[in-house]
Amino acid sequence: MPMVDVWLPYGKTEVCLRVPTRNFLGTIEPREKPGVADAKAEVERALKEPIGSKRLSEIVKPEHKVAIVVDDATRPAPSHVMVPPLLDELGGAGVKDENVTVIFGCGTHRAVTDEEAVRLLGENVIRRVKTVSHNCKAPDLVYIGTTAKYGTKVYLNRVFAEADVKILTGDVCFHYYAGYGGGRKSVLPGVAGEETIKANHAMLLHPNARTGILDENPVHEDMVEAAKMAKVGFILNVVTNSKGEIVKAFAGDMEQAFNEGVKLVDEMYRVPVDRKADIVVVGPGGYPADMNLFQAYKGVDSALEVVKRGGVIVLAAECLEGHGSQAFYDWMVKFKDLKAVEREIKRNFVLGRHKAYYLMKALQKAQIILVSAMPDYYAVNVFRLKTARTVNEALNEAFKIAGENAKVWVMPYGNYALPIAKTSE
Q1: Which residues, 6 or more positions from 311, have their beta carbon under 8 angstroms from its beta carbon?
Q2: H or E stretch covering 297
Q3: pLDDT band at 119 (very low <50, low <70, confident <90, very high)
Q4: Using alpha carbons only, what angle is made at residue 202 by residues 284 and 384, rounded to the nearest 5 degrees?
Q5: Which residue, 1, 78, 21, is CA-closest to 408?
Q6: Mean pLDDT value of segment 144-161
């Protein structure tokens, strides 16, 4: 029987999948763009050509106190490339370094360590300006009002709230329930209080709170409203490719610059597909996307867009670090029923647990066969997955479930590509 060979990144190596030609629909891959040759020059260009806004140097006055929000160590944004040109622009307008504070927008995550701070910003920036990690449980958060549409009480970091000029940095990319990362997300969850974050994130149960969707997405709309209430003065966002290289930088107005970034993300990673398949074989894209099940799950989320109801997803993810989230693990053990999970998310949103909700929901639509280094005991008993030793064994198993005529899509970079199927089934 004629076969097609497809290579899938797996950890720091790759594996070869063999699909019978008659079953093979093709591969779904991002249309990646190369990174710019000079990342710093690209950031400087964006600052000189702001979208929908004056230049930063025309917005600030020499006596202003300025807060710059950067991502913490859990996100791959190249802050070390973005912050120095911002400081130069501020300095050129007469703002003194001692009036600038860089805030790590930790959301509900732990504080950034000294080593991480140096890695994220570079020695030079650390020496020039003061840096602080946002603490969502800080006793001195500032209440700035309640969002009109969804009634979220907005509590913010004091240093951020009291700054004369507020600057956000980050990367625009797909996000599970906010639609996209970047822009307004640096305020909520970045520098928001725990109560604010929980109220906002509990709306992930809404049908429009999905990857790649902004229209009528309550999580996104609420974030935008909170960031507008905070009076953000300027943003600097980048879009990177899967190698982490900057493809383009966007600066200026919080909404307009972000929306331009969204267009580029769509161009690179939103992939129109004409039909769904009975079987989808997906790899997150190798290390670090498949270092644990918590990260690798994004690939399943993408595959769900193009697998038929009752179909099979084969997830090839090394998961050397196991499941990657105690909260995710605990909820898979604790809850057997999706309705109970939904009730609990509304009552008390905790980061990490939402993956249990997504996985349990996915298992209602498709069977999932995991090929990984994770012990079977956990994969099967806790996470309710089937397992196979190799991708080709998993595919054979999938054919037994879906039938020998089953059609197959292959997604080697599932954590990056978002397939959009034209037909509903």
Answers
A1: 276, 277, 278, 279, 280, 365, 366, 367, 402, 406
A2: helix 293-303
A3: very high
A4: 45
A5: 21
A6: 98
Report the amino acid identity of residue 229.
M
Q: Are 214 and 180 in contact (CB under 8 A)?
A: yes
Burial (Cβ within 10 Å: 0-12, 13-18, ≥19) of residue 45:
middle
- Provide the mean pLDDT of the chain: 96
Three-state secondary structure call for residue 160: helix
Q: What are all long-range contacts of 151-155, with beta carbons under 8 Å and residues at least 24 apart?
A: 151/199, 152/196, 152/199, 152/200, 152/222, 152/226, 153/195, 153/196, 153/199, 154/188, 154/192, 154/196, 154/226, 154/229, 154/230, 155/192, 155/193, 155/195, 155/196
Between helix 354-365 and helix 338-347 the angle, nearest 10°, is 150
> Where in the sequence numbering do the catalytic residues fall?
109, 175
pLDDT single digits (tens) 268-284: 999 999 999 999 999 99
Q: Which domains can be identified in the chain, with CATH numbers?
A: 3-30+270-421 (3.90.226.30), 39-240 (3.40.50.11440)
Query: Residue 290: what pLDDT?
Result: 95
At CB < 8 A and 24+ separation, what contacts does 11-17 make? 11/286, 11/287, 11/290, 11/318, 11/320, 11/373, 12/286, 12/287, 13/286, 14/286, 15/316, 15/371, 15/390, 15/391, 16/391, 17/281, 17/316, 17/391, 17/392, 17/395, 17/410
Q: What is the pLDDT of residues 103-112, one digit of tens each?
A: 999 998 899 9
Is residue 211 within 8 Å of 249, Cβ to Cβ? no
List the structure tokens of 90: 């501020």
Residue 76 has pLDDT above 60, yes or no: yes
| Spatial separation of the C-alpha atoms in residues 113 and 13, rounded to whole Å | 31
